[in-house]
Amino acid sequence: MTPQPPPSARDLVGKRILLVGGAGFIGHNLALELHGRGAEVGIVDSLHVNNLLSLHDESAPAERDLYSLMVNERLALLKAAGIPIFVDDARDYHRLSKHFSMFDPDTVVLLAAVSHASRANKDPMRTLDHSFRSLENALDNARGNVEHFIFLSSSMVYGDFVTDSVDELAPCNPLGIYGAVKLGGEKLVIAYGQVFDLPYTIVRPSALYGERCISRRVGQIFIENSLRGKDLVIQGDGLEKIDFTYIQDFVEGIALVIREEKSKGEIFNITYGQGEALQTVADIVQSEFPEISVRHEPRNSLVPERGTLEVSKAKSLLGYEPSFPISAGFPKYISWYRQLFERFDSSALKGIEPQSNE
Ligand SMILES: NC(=O)c1ccc[n+]([C@@H]2O[C@H](COP(=O)([O-])OP(=O)(O)OC[C@H]3O[C@@H](n4cnc5c(N)ncnc54)[C@H](O)[C@@H]3O)[C@@H](O)[C@H]2O)c1
User: Fold this and answer.
1) How far is the CA of 333 from the centre of ligand 1 (A)?
2) 3-class SS letters over the chain
3) What is the pTM of this model?
């Protein structure tokens, strides 16, 4: 007898979901998850920001080859699943309108952004343009036309955590451009809800990691450096805690936001729900690469001091149950990276210098 899928497996049949900025790290993994649950998924993405077309001007040449491989694997997976990508810039209102009209979504997820705090601080104008203009265009196309608008905000809206863990009611005092633009984005989404009755949900993720991420956040850099035989570089003393979240937990959380009516009008932390010290992540990586050393550099004062994001609201209202503590997620990620490097021509990696965390 053929095994039956679990009840949740096809829980989004009948949904038409447009992911704006959906060819990025989160977006393509989310598209595959939603498609697997039976939704019709479409993507609008310029491939221009932290993606295929930016690899020639934003990254060192050696990274470009490795990251091109990852991005091409994203595109191949999306193609194999039959998920269309409409290659267009969401800053262009009329181009975006065309895709809204043609795809006719009932649900929109806004992911397009400059999704990196230190890159945002280096280029505020570009950050505001890609993050805020795209958001407002998507909101304006969505009002009166879609049933649900989901905005990906960030844990960075909280700024320095004043307690070890924060829930969604904690004060928001962002530090730097990225968090400020995210908090402004949340306010704009809420305003569209007030003025146009647009049903919305705001989601605050934290420190996602997993397959085919090219954003060069700390976990990714640890693993790449280890695979190249280079030191791990920790900024600060390593005791600082971050709520690292494996991509599979996160995309399942978003699927629940889409499925559950109760998510509308709400803000959710969607993370693993447990801050972990940077040193603990370094220890996990080192346990897989015992020959690698760790060294420390001064901490970047513009990075907020964070910790745990409480996820009890998502658990009780949505039935969210994250299942990847870093002790499970990072070994899985490392195993994927080892296979990726086998596919990649290792000779292309020779002579690369380690890069510090951003
Ligand atoms: N990855 C994380 O840890 C994390 C944490 C908190 C919040 N977020 C937020 O989640 C969202 C997705 O993050 P990600 O990690 O997938 O980032 P990403 O950089 O991998 O993906 C962003 C995608 O948006 C596209 N994009 C940007 N500007 C665009 C425009 N004007 N028109 C069309 N497409 C455009 C890019 O080409 C890219 O494919 C972002 O809003 C980010 O700020 C991410």
Assistant:
1) 20
2) CCCCCCHHHHCCCCCEEEEECCCCHHHHHHHHHHHHCCCEEEEEECCCCCCHHHHHHHCCHHHHHHHHHHHHHHHHHHHHHCCCEEECCCCCHHHHHHHHHHHCCCEEEECCCCCCHHHHHHCHHHHHHHHHHHHHHHHHHHCCCCCEEEEECCHHHHCCCCCCEECCCCCCCCCCHHHHHHHHHHHHHHHHHHHHCCCEEEEECCCEECCCCCCCCHHHHHHHHHHCCCCEEEECCCCCEECCEEHHHHHHHHHHHHHCHHHCCEEEECCCCCCEEHHHHHHHHHHHCCCCCEEEECCCCCCCCCCEECCHHHHHHHCCCCCCCHHHHHHHHHHHHHHHHHHCCHHHHCCCCCCCCC
3) 0.94
